[in-house]
Amino acid sequence: MKHLLVARFSALGDVAMTVPVIATVARQYPNLQITMVSRKHFGPLFEALPSNVHFIGVDLKKEYKGILGIKRLASDLDVKRFSAFADLHDVLRTKFLRLVCRLHGLRVEHLKKDRAARAALTREKDKKLVRQPSVFSKYADVFARLGYPISLTSDCFTMRNEVDSNPQFSIEIPTKGGNRWVGIAPFAAHAGKVYPMEQMEKVVELLSTQTGVQTFLFGAGTKERAVLESWQERYPKTLSIAGRLKSMGEELQLMCNLDVMLSMDSANMHLASLVQTPVVSVWGATHPYAGFMGWNQNEDNALQVDLPCRPCSIFGNIPCHRGDYACLTRITPQQVVDRLAQVAQFNLA
């Protein structure tokens, strides 16, 4: 029986984007065994996948740190038992793992990042605003080159049916009843992706005045939790769940019950997408044309300002050329709330 080794170590959003593709490969090739290797805490993303998908969580900061750690990982995985290796990351660690796999006779393919096209999309002058293939399709291309082409259609995957629609949470959650549940994930890894906090707070304030709307705030880390808890204290019908749920699995369960998620171009957009929750996304320095739109999300719900300098970055990590992040500040809180109301179908007061 053929057994495929797959690796993508980070970041959370990119790993989440592998899930629909791996699930589709598993379903369309039920006799193929697939082992996904990634960081331990990403395991819940793969729990609802078909039984021929297996997950191995690894610690890349200690046990498998550096090149020597990857060499030890290859040994612990016993790579010679696999028939092929799909590298969905293409970084130094996985390049070394590819080398080891080749030495053991495995067929190897890796993600093609197409850096030239990305550079043309984001350069300051003579920008080529051309839509790039989605990351989902790029992942699928890796499997196709290994001999496993798939039909990646909009209805080929959802985790929603696998997530408990009436879950038990580790904290007290308000009863939904007839209320609309709105999730807000206001943070991202880089400044070019983050809607200004004072404007996001205004969004939270406006939502708190709406009848029948409950808002949940998502985040991680001490500083983020402090911000979200201060909003919870100031605005009624607003609950911060940052650091309070026990697992990613619980977060996915809560997201599954939301009527809409407001997110940056960040991991929470992709997590909500996996459970088929509609997402209103805010885009600043980055752009949906780079291929990172959430799975099955409607691009009409991507809030963005047309500026000649956009996009200036694939990941939002380039300092603003203008110095004012107009791509973000020009999106008004009222525009955000109006779109949330439209998607979640609630009337504004």
CATH superfamily of the largest domain, by name, is Glycogen Phosphorylase B
Q: Please tell me the overall pLDDT.
A: 96
- C-alpha termini separation: 60 Å
**Count of DSSP strands:** 11
Which percent band covers the strand fraction?
5-15%
CATH class of the largest domain: Alpha Beta
What's the arrangement of strands in the largest beta sheet?
A: 8-7-6-9-10-11
Rg (C-alpha, Å): 21 Å
Total number of domains: 2
Task: Summarize the helix and strand pattern as letters.
Answer: EHEEHEHEHHEHEHEHEHEEHH
Task: Explain this structure.
This protein has 349 residues and is α/β, with parallel strands linked by helices. It folds into 2 domains: 3-150, Rossmann fold; 173-344, Rossmann fold, CATH 3.40.50. It contains 11 helices and 11 strands. The chain has helices spanning 12-28, 66-77, 92-103, 115-122, 135-145, 197-208, 222-234, 248-256, 267-274, 326-329, 333-344; strands spanning 3-7, 33-39, 53-58, 84-87, 107-110, 180-185, 213-217, 238-240, 260-264, 279-282, 302-303. The strands form 2 sheets. Strands 8-7-6-9-10-11 form a 6-stranded parallel sheet, with helices on both faces. A 5-stranded parallel sheet has the order 3-2-1-4-5, sandwiched between helices. Strand 6, helix 6 and strand 7 (213-217) form a beta-alpha-beta unit. The mean pLDDT is 96.
